[in-house]
Amino acid sequence: MKEQFETESNSNVLFVTENCNNHCIMCCQPPKKCYDFDNNYRRNIELIKTSPKDVKTVCITGGEPTLAGDKFFSLIELVCEQLPDTDIHILSNGRNFANAEFVSRLKNVGGDKIICGIPLHSDYCGDHDRIAGAKNAFNETLLGLYNLAAEEISIELRVVINALNYKRLPQMAEFIFKNLFFVSWTAFMAMEHTGYAVKNSEKVYIEPIDYMPELCRAIETLDTSGLDVSIYNIPNCLIPEGFRRFAAQSISDWKTKYLDICDNCCQKNHCCGLFATSKQIFKGLKAL
Ligand code: SF4
Ligand code: SF4
């Protein structure tokens, strides 16, 4: 993490806590139980106060940042006051947004500057809860999504693809179209292979080339239904040509790496590259 925000960076991050109320089977940054809210808060206040005024977006993340309660809202207030032209991207599992008063307060402090990145692991509650490692997570996250929509807060719906959910990606796309059509966009994401994704590799790891047929069907469903959809964290050489327009430069700049073969690839400037933090390198990479 950076000691100071930078204007050009795509990873100006306010890290709120290592605590989380989920226990996701592929979490890249496994949660810890420790009282770390005050130290992180002090550090985050400094980052906001010393930030250049023209940073495009700050990301508020954890763990689960909403667990910080008043300090979570106070950070948002400070960003609004000090960086009036900066968007606020909140990465949350969405469960605390099941509380409508909490969401209303979020709207009051953050207004239209907020974009909430919320994960959906499956269209089937049993699979979602199993992946999230928490009972009732699906119901709470869904309710949270509806509460955010009711306050007209922008939502980025995030689907982290793994061996437990890839087969139902086409059904998930149908589910999103029917029930979550209000999200600003859906991002289908490759896993970062670190943390619990390594510990539970046998259960969760799958190569992008092995889920590409299901992913392309899901993207087609959302795209033809008029919903915005993106692919995160998958290099262009693993995506069929007709689907590369959905790929985004999604990996934080400090975590991105390219291989030697990438120097001879015409797609390098348009490709997200690979996670420098991942233990496993995807199969099938080739210069285009
Ligand atoms: S919600 Fe995020 S931080 Fe919490 S366990 Fe899941 S992946 Fe990790
Ligand atoms: S070879 Fe490298 S730069 Fe080219 S598409 Fe693959 S990962 Fe990206």
Concise overview:
With 288 residues, this protein is α/β, with parallel strands linked by helices. The chain is 33% helix and 14% strand. The protein has one domain: TIM Barrel, CATH 3.20.20.
SSE map:
Layout: E1 13-15, H1 37-49, E2 57-61, H2 70-82, E3 87-91, H3 100-110, E4 114-119, H4 125-132, H5 137-150, E5 154-161, H6 169-179, E6 185-190, H7 196-199, H8 201-204, H9 208-224, E7 229-232, E8 256-257, E9 274-275
Parallel strand pairs: 1-2, 2-3, 3-4, 4-5, 5-6, 6-7
Antiparallel strand pairs: 8-9
Bound molecules: iron/sulfur cluster (2 copies).
Percent helix:
25-40%
Q: Helical segment tally?
A: 9
Strand content: 5-15%
The CATH class turns out to be Alpha Beta
Q: SSE string, helix = H, strand = E?
A: EHEHEHEHHEHEHHHEEE
Structural overview:
It is a single chain. With 288 residues, the protein is of the alpha/beta class. It has a single domain, classed as TIM Barrel (Alpha-Beta Barrel). Helices cover 33% and strands 14% of the residues. It contains nine helices and nine strands. Helix 1 links the parallel strand 1 and strand 2. The chain starts with 12 loop residues before the first strand and ends in a 13-residue tail after the last strand. One iron/sulfur cluster (SF4) binds next to loops.
